[in-house]
Amino acid sequence: MVDTKDWTWVLERPCPECGFAAATLDRSDIGAATRSVAEQFVGLLAGDERVKKRPDPAVWSALEYGCHVRDVFAIMGGRLNLILAEHDPPFANWDQDATAVAERYHDQDPSLVSADLLANGLALADAFDAVRDDQWLRRGFRSDGSVFTVESLGRYMVHDPVHHVWDVEQGLAVLKGASG
User: Fold this and answer.
1) 5 band by pLDDT with thresholds 50, 70 and 90
2) Were both Cys, which of 56, 62, 140, 148 would link to 51 (CB 3.0–4.6 Å)?
3) Is 150 within 8 Å of 136 (Cβ atoms)?
4) Is the distance from CB of 66 to CB of 41 less than 8 angstroms?
């Protein structure tokens, strides 16, 4: 299976939904940005039972997004370690939608998800902070042919949780409006 969700365009232009502009993120700020968004996500998951409700049947709940972000941090940490350890490695494919179903994201405990999300985010932030100047241009490859350097992987990764904070805020606003 080939990775088919191509969000690499966020490396070239701002996201029209969440407004994140990956190209403006300095590589020295990737760790700090990762810490910040991980902490922000934990705050979103600390709400009431609405975190388990979907604002629409086709839109994930805050909890499901939290599980996804937790896993993004873990996957990207693995990819970063791989790039730093090997010469031009291929990345294993990851079907995030299949993972959501198989891991029953909707049934997980928000407090456990928060703890794991924060731990994964902080570990990834520390890993990016530890990248040496001579390592930023090391490369890795997705099966769809996308090439990532350590730097572009970091910028690409930061967009994901930032975007999902936006998704969750939109969804929680819908749920709040629906409950009056």
Assistant:
1) low
2) 62
3) yes
4) yes
For the chain, give the number of residues: 180
- pLDDT tens digits for range 70-93: 999 999 999 999 999 999 999 999
Q: The domain 27-179 is classified under which CATH number: 3.30.43.10, 3.40.50.300, 1.20.120.450, 1.10.3720.10?
A: 1.20.120.450
Distance CA(90)–CA(97), nearest Å, equals: 21
Residue 139: which residues within 8 A CB-CB, separation 6 or more?
Answer: 83, 88, 147, 148, 149
Amino acid, single-letter form, for residue 84: L
d(CA 173, CA 177): 6
Q: What are the residue boundaries of the structural domains of the chain, listed by start?
A: 27-179
